Amino acid sequence: MKEIQSNPNILGGTPVFKGTRVPVEILFDYLEEGASIDTFLNDYPTVEKKQAIAVLDIAGKVVSSQDFKSKYEATS
Questions:
Q1: Which of 46, 56, 59, 60 could form a cystine bridge with 20, CB 3.0-4.6 A?
Q2: What is the predicted pLDDT for the residue at 1?
Q3: CA 20 to CA 45: how far, in whole Å?
Q4: pLDDT value of residue 71
Q5: Which residues pair with 4 in a beta bridge?
């Protein structure tokens, strides 16, 4: 199951957790501020824990891919 959806009719196409109106970016904002996944889930009960974990797994794969490294280095 895809965990992220982007629909122009939902928050102008902002990537959200599938089946919700919760932007994926908010999870990363929480983690950046030092909050736990559980705190995020308590504040956004429409997001399931498996969705949050899957999104973190996707992000990990993206930033560890060779394609990401070459694109990131080109912009640094």
A1: 46
A2: 52
A3: 10
A4: 63
A5: 17
